[in-house]
């Protein structure tokens, strides 16, 4: 005699199924299993992984069947064919939605209305009626989700690929039910078209209903958005992560747009832990705004990608502000690196620093981190003095990954021997970057001494050559002269996986541009 599983066990089993096809199988077991599987399948139907086109059409058809009669009549009056939908559904599918991606929703609507391949934005622009139908269906479905969903945790707004749709003109946060469905929104990502999208009103309206966002990822596309964004940030109870990409260049006469955002972040000082800034100009950020931002003592991660006007006189305001800082990632922009301020950052955080990455040489950086940041696990730095890699190895014994760039045409035999004497017992990956034209010079003997010292710890050894001549066609000109076959034999004998590459472009099938030597393990990068 078969005994049914307790309800709690069934729910626990189904909630731990991660593969959709297994969830679909669970639907067919019996009503009880179906009851638990449906909410899981429909919490994130816009996830494109393992979704065939016919499944996407079924998703839209099902949601259209969930609409009330008034909404269906509105769509039909605009010429939308709803003959494939049903008058009712077995479940309230829209109530289960937790994750909403407007990009995926737009493409699914396209495929539902126009299943032929190759139908994209150009056709929308040519046929205004078609565009109106898609925008109306998009709006009606978004209203359904906001009105019926019990709890939406993730929203991604994007105009990518659909300029005329302008999702920001749709008042998501003002729909009936928004106070409930968006009350516990955790992740909000918003990306527009440079100079065209204007989500200022969206930010302001969302600040009235969304108070529990922990992760904000925003692309700033117009001048007017900054104040709305600052309002949204300030209204949160516990913001943790903030990513801002600026798609527009602001002049020195513009208002303090980014300063307002930094001041708003200061309101989240108890929980704020991670900031990511790309193409952001500090030219109009006043000293006091950064002082206020410096009150975010819980900050653990800072990323700067091609930001402008990060000057010592302003950046110094936060140079001693973050004692809990763990991760710093910096890609240089059009202005110089404020080296003194960054060194002060590391002196303040000291052994809390776990990873550091700079794509350019920073004066005094290596001496500072090897003195104060001895618990480093991951480092990517540049130096014209290759011997500084020995300084790193001597003082940072917890290192697992090193990416070191610098020095041209230098005899580094003593460097490799010095590294052998200082190797970190935890080092797993070593990547050396050197000039293609003037690489490091070292013998197979010194290479063997180094590899013998770390063959029990080092898993991957890489060499990358930059500044290769453009448009190389001749195989001799493309030959990497750092190593010869004797070097490669040494590497093979060590059992350490090896990869060597360069920035030669374009790739020529007749020219060998990469060299791979498998190690004695099956580890992947």
Task: Describe how the helices and strands are arranged.
Elements: H1 7-15, H2 20-27, H3 31-41, H4 53-65, H5 69-77, E1 99-101, H6 102-113, H7 121-126, H8 128-148, E2 154-158, H9 178-181, E3 187-191, H10 200-207, E4 215-220, H11 225-234, E5 241-246, H12 257-266, E6 274-278, H13 287-293, E7 301-305, H14 312-315, E8 327-331, H15 339-349, E9 355-358, H16 365-372, E10 378-382, H17 388-395, E11 401-405, H18 413-422, E12 429-435, H19 444-454, E13 460-466, H20 475-478, H21 485-494, E14 497-502, E15 515-517
Parallel strand pairs: 1-2, 2-3, 3-4, 4-5, 5-6, 6-7, 7-8, 8-9, 9-10, 10-11, 11-12, 12-13, 13-14
Antiparallel strand pairs: 14-15
Helix pairs in contact: 1-3, 2-3, 4-6, 10-11, 11-12, 12-13, 15-16, 16-17, 17-18, 18-19, 19-21
Give a quick set of tags describing it:
525 residues; alpha/beta; Leucine-rich repeat, LRR (right-handed beta-alpha superhelix); 4 domains; 21 helices; 15 strands; 15% strand; F-box domain-containing protein; LRR_dom_sf
Describe this structure in words.
The protein has 525 residues and is α/β, with parallel strands linked by helices. The protein has 4 domains: 1-41; 42-158, no CATH class; 186-352, Ribonuclease Inhibitor (Leucine-rich repeat, LRR (right-handed beta-alpha superhelix), Alpha-Beta Horseshoe); 377-525, Alpha-Beta Horseshoe (Leucine-rich repeat, LRR (right-handed beta-alpha superhelix)). Helices cover 37% and strands 15% of the residues. The chain is built from 21 helices and 15 strands. A 15-stranded mixed beta sheet has the order 1-2-3-4-5-6-7-8-9-10-11-12-13-14-15. It is globular. Residues 121-126 have low confidence and may be disordered.
